[in-house]
Design goal:
Elements (H helix, E strand, L loop, with lengths): L4 H21 L8 E5 L5 H10 L3 E4 L2 H11 L5 E4 L8 H7 L2 E5 L2 H14 L3 E8 L9 E2 H11 L5 E7 L12 H18 L5 E3 L6 H6 L4 E4 L1 H4 L7
Parallel strand pairs: 1-2, 1-9, 2-3, 3-4, 4-5, 5-6, 5-7, 7-8
Helix pairs in contact: 1-2, 2-3, 4-5
Amino acid sequence: MENNSHTIATRLANLRDRVAQAAGRAGRRAEGISLVAVSKMHPAESILAAYEAGVRHFGENRVQEWEAKQPKVANLDAIWHLIGHLQSNKARRAAHLFRRMDSLDDLDLAKKLHAAAAAEGKCLPVLIEVHLGGEETKSGVAEDGLASLAASIAPFAHLDFAGLMTIPPFFDDPDRVRPYFRKLRELRDGLSRQLGRPLPILSMGMSHDFEIAIEEGATEIRIGTALFGARTPGA
């Protein structure tokens, strides 16, 4: 199997070196940037290999897929992120299964997640996903609805609103996504001033553009292919 422990460890070392170089160009510390391993469509064995190599943050897109894999990795001391679009009727299951919700984009969903987290006796950290690219296939709150959504969820006692996430359009030239990352940082800074509280997390950048994202202020990058290799549907 391609995703063996040695291969993943080697890829992770390379990624960390690239993170450090990008952080250095921006005058930042690499230690302030978390790598979220996007394990969707990869088997539990790959998660175990990445954990053994030192990864502690993992991102899944679908509740059902994670429910199938979770028993095999339940003993790992890792932070499990839901990074895909969540239907509100799955809020209770998501609040139970995940330690972070990184793709909140709707007030109704926020209310259901808040109630579900309260029932779990936990405070669920959340990021608002912002739709900046204008692509119909992408999820996220529109820029003009962000401030209202943020102000609405900020008081929720069982949701910890911690920052923003975005998935920009794909370009062969990664530097073309720079304006989207810069925009997300500016939106985060404005919201922080508006709410009078820090919003420390900027989740942006994936395998093909994470270095640009780091240069523009990313505190979390979401890495799938560059760590695990090509996805294997049905795994």
